[in-house]
Amino acid sequence: MTLPLLIAALCYVAALMAFSWYARRTTSRDARGYLFAGGNLSAFLGLFTFAATLFSTFTLLGMPDFFRTHGVGAWLFLGFSDLLMVFGIIWLGLQLRRRRPEGGYQGMARLMITAYRRPLAGWVCLGGAFLFLIPYVAIQIRGVAIFLHGSFPTGLPVWGWAVGMVVLMLVYSETGGLKAIIYSDVLQGILLLTIIWLIGANCLGELGGWQAMFAEVEKVDAALLSTPGPKGLFTPQFMLASFLAIALIPYTQPQVSTRIMIMRSRQALFRMALGVGIFAILVILPTLFLGMYGAVHYAGAETSVFLSGTLVGDQSPVVAALAMIGLIAAAISTADSQLFALGSELKPLLGGSEEDRLRWARLAIALFAGLALAFSLVASDELVLLARTSFAGTALLAPMIFVGLLGRQPPPAWLPGLTLAALLVFLGVSLGYLPGVWLGLRADLWLMGGLSLAALATRPWLGTRAPVEDG
Amino acid sequence: MADQSGVRRRRQWLACRIVAVLTLLVALSPLTMPAGISNPSLMGTPYTLWVSLLLTILLLVLTWLGSQLQAKRED
Predict the structure, then answer these.
(1) How far is A240 from chain B (nearest CA, A)?
(2) CB contacts < 8 A (A, B)
């Protein structure tokens, strides 16, 4: 497998560098060009950059293991909630775009400062994203580094793979800006979809087809074919909290809201949303095949044994090599967008000249990458549940953001303060300092419910209408 | 005439949103997630999975319909 892997890796790195060089040559070097790709994204580029940013190692490594461990309810957890998110873009995406300032979008944190007329709102927005996105970036890097180390035990240590990925990511994104990330997302999105289907089709074939697959799983553990699954995870409460956390991603995670804001027109936005919906179904379906294959052939095995066996050991050398490149691509395409978005969000909150602020934002991206790298060396291996915690954490920003965006009058200053308090409480819950269930209800549902009631209490529907965007 | 089609589109868009919310409620109910039950299956597919797949496709159709209606909407 070494030769195919070497060839695939060289082609992949060369393509990333070429995109970076091309983006640098064709994009203006000011903040709008560098951080927001000129704010003029077509439906095609929008679809692939949105999809590559959204679907990560969480999808490629986490979802097969989730299906294998918790059963078919995993489709409802991610497939259905992703489509809810896509419908939400049609519903609320226009409202979000209507609040684009005439001078161009400068990030959600900047929008919140404008809406609330308080810097605290911007810092809460950035702080919430930072607190819950850095661990998410870290688990992307860790997941793939552990996988690569497991596949090549005599090669680099885990930290060596992690450093290699972060350096590669920083080189092309710092050089070419968001445009380079978007171009590379197209490659990475296509790569991800192709590879997951190659492996998925092999797994489905090995199990004897669609119907035989479920018959085989039933022989091993019938509880995998219903909810709440063998470990009782998929309860209505868990699903509701997950639906909310995932459906709110476009408004609460800056790397995604940026992509909605920089779409060329509303038509491009809608085509992109529909395309992402189709992409979501196409990319999650084969993870079901991988998971069911694992349930039959790797029942009770460690996650790392199942993944390295299914994605590499049981595949032909060429497919196995492509799987490894696909994994690196999946991790990098999500992590680079998240780190870059954090830098973009920080810039308008800083003082000084435009050039100075852009320089500090670029430095911050490198600093955030370093932090994520450090966290990746100590993070847990539970990819999906950690990712879900990240989604639930950033989702707590949603009531504050919606009131700021949809409100027809300046919202009260206490809402950002209350949101900050809720974020800190959820951090305490995530770290195990506070209980996860209060009076029989999940803590994240309590917090989201409380913030939503507080948001409703501000009566955001009163007052004058917000300005309208181009269309 | 233009007003009438505008009103019709707004009503259709409202219907889309109501169906989407109902879909969400059905997804969370025992209709989709009956505890420990995998029958009736459809072409070998366990009950919760085929219902979830249907609901997902329904949301995709609603997204397409919504995008058509919203694209023609005047602000």
Answers:
(1) 7
(2) 116
Q: Using CB atoms, which residue from A76, A210, A274 is nearest to B63?
A: A274
Q: Which pLDDT tens digit goes with each residue over A76-111?
A: 999 999 999 999 999 888 888 887 777 778 889 999
Domains in chain A, CATH or no CATH each: 2-383 (1.20.1730.10)
Residue A307: Cβ-neighbour burial (10 angstroms; 0-12, 13-18, 19+)? buried
ipTM metric? 0.93
Q: Which domain holds residue B67?
A: 2-71
Strand partners of residue B45: B42
* Minimum CA–CA partner of B21 in chain A: A84
Residue given tokens 């809460």 in the structure block: A124
Q: How many structural domains does chain B have?
A: 1
Q: In this complex, is the C-beta atom of A237 within 8 Å of any C-beta atom belonging to chain B? A: no
Rounded to 10°, the helix A398-406/A414-430 angle is 160
Give the best residue of B14, B19, B38, B72 to mutate against chain A (max A CB count within 10 A): B38
Q: Which of A390, A452, A462, A451 is nearest to A135 (CA)?
A: A390
Q: A39: closest CA among A206, A268, A229?
A: A268
What's the rounded Cα separation, in Å, for the pair A231 and A305? 20
